[in-house]
């Protein structure tokens, strides 16, 4: 469908037969990250106008899933993993290993294309930061966040997520 398929064209503009043909012609890679870590990252980047993490989380919860920003909307509703059969799912924290595998599968030179990742340092930092931020939340907010992201937590193996408890 080269006539209609441009970088600006949304997949939803095609019919189901066209969508299946288009998706079948691509290698589909989904990058996923613990939803609580996505919230922390969004807050740290100043994407919310809240003065504290707790009030930011309350703003997120008050917005609801349908009005949520792409920055914190549940991944399942953004990427539709139940409808699209992804060829690879890459978890944040394992980027160097998994991207190396993807590049090898594509026949590309691994060492010259990959930037230097510090996955273990990032994981330790987010673990510590998650613990600090999670302690700021009320029990009610923790329960609401777990419910807000329950489909993401069911779809992906975020076993160490603070929201999994």
UniProtKB/TrEMBL annotation:
GO cellular component labels: Golgi membrane
Residues in the signal sequence: none
Enzyme class: transferase
Matching Pfam families: Sulfotransfer_2 (PF03567)
This protein's UniProt keywords: Carbohydrate metabolism, Glycoprotein, Golgi apparatus, Membrane, Signal-anchor, Transferase, Transmembrane, Transmembrane helix
Enzyme nomenclature, EC number: 2.8.2.-
InterPro entries reported for this sequence: Carb_sulfotrans_8-10 (IPR018011), Sulfotransferase (IPR005331)
Protein name as catalogued: Carbohydrate sulfotransferase
Gene designation per UniProt: Chst9_1
